[in-house]
C-alpha cells in the first residue's frame, strides 16, 4: 500500500486503543468492538480528561507539590538524585526508562522490583563503578578524569511503599530507555550516537540485560543486538523476538532481533541471533517522518550481516545518501530499509507493538505507529497537529487496562489551560489526547533542605521530561520518572474513572 492509504475508517485504525471514558470498565484493546467511535475521522485532537481537571498535589513523601494530578490521585517520591543507595553512594541523576520486572510475595508482603535507567554520559564520582555488573572501568577518553556514568538501579516497592534502591549495572553511557522481558529482566539501552572509544578501548552503543537480583547482572553487552543509538526495546511475548528503536534524527531505523533461543531466559539473548531492519514492501528507503494519520504499510525485513559495524555514509537503493549513520543503518539502508525521524518509546501489548516517533507526524510533534505482529502491518494511529495536543512524546506505556500513556519530552514544554510544563498524556479510544498530569517541580534550596534533599537540585524543572512510565501488573500503581532533577514517583488513585 502507499504511504497515504486512508481507505480504512478511524474506528478501524484505532481498534486496540483505550476505551473512552463512557466505558471505563471495558478492556481497552477490545473496547472499540463494542461501541461506535463518537469522534469524526480527522486529526488527533485535545479533549477533556475523563479523570477531570488537574491541580497541584503534594507528595506524600516530602510534602512538596511536584505534580499536577486529577482529584483523588496521590503519589510518593523516592530515589532522588543525591539520595544514598544501598551501597552508601549518592544516586546518580538522569532518571529515564524504567520497568516492573518482578512481582512477588515476600513473607506476608507484596513486593515489586523495578529497574531504572540513568541517562548519564561522562561523570566524575563514578557512582556505579562498584555495581555488580560493570562494563567499562576506563575513562571516557585518554587523559580525562571522567568515567562512563550510565547504569541502572534496582528499586523495591513493598506494600505500597518504597523500600530500597541498589545499583546493578555500571560503566555504560547514556542508558536512555529499554524494555522488560517476559522472563523478568530489563534490557538497558545505550543511546550512543558515535563510535568514540573510551580509554580502555571499549565500544559503546549496546544493549545490556539486567537481572531482578542485582547480583546476577554481569555487565556484558549483547553485541548481536547492534551498535547504534538504541532508545527502547520490547519483546513479542508470543515469539520472543525483540523489537528496537533508534533515536538518531533523520536516520533512525526500526529493528528486530531474532534470538537463536526462544522463547528465552536470562542470558539467552547473548547466545546469538539475527538482527534485522524494517522495510516497506514495494517501497525502497521509505521515510515515515511525515506519514499521515491512518497511513497503513506492510513490512518486511532485511538482515544486518554485521551488527557491530562502524558508522559511515549510507547510500540507498534509490540513491539517497545519508551521512554518518550507524553501521546497522548503513547496511539496512543499502537494502531499501525504512527510516523514522526519531524512534523512541516502544511497548508490547496484546499482539501489537506501539512505537513513538518523537518528531514524526504532520508537524513533527510526534506520531505513534501500531505494528500488528501477526500481519506485520504498520498503521499510524496518532499524529499531533500542534504542541498543545501532543508535544514530542518520548517514552510510552500501555496500562493493564490496555490504554496508552505518553511521556512528553519537548525542547519547549507546552503551555495549556493548566499552565507551563511537560505532561503525561493519555489517549482515548478515538485516538484523541488528554492531559493526565503535569510536571510541577519548582523548588527552592530551603524547600529541599526541609525535605532532606540536596539543595543543588533547586530550580524550575517544569520543562524537564517525564520518562519511564510503567504500571504494576495489577494496574494499581503508575511509576514514572522526572529525568531532571532526578525523581521517581509512584502514583495511585481512581483509575476506573477513565481508561488507564
Taking Cα atoms only, what radius of gyration do you get, to the nearest Å? Answer: 21 Å
Q: What is the CA-CA span between the terminal residues?
A: 33 Å
Give the number of helices.
3
- The fraction of residues assigned to DSSP E strands is 35-45%
Helix coverage percent = under 10%
Structural class of the helix and strand makeup?
Answer: mainly beta
Query: How are the strands of the biggest sheet laid out side by side?
Result: 14-15-16-17-18-24-23-22-21
Q: Give the low-pLDDT segments.
A: 1-40
The number of distinct β-strands equals 35
Shape: globular
Question: For the report, how would you describe the main beta sheet?
Answer: 9 strands, antiparallel
- Mean pLDDT value: 91
Textual characterization of the structure:
The structure is a single chain. 4% of the residues lie in helices and 39% in strands. It is mostly beta strands. It has a domain at 94-221. The two termini are 33 Å apart.
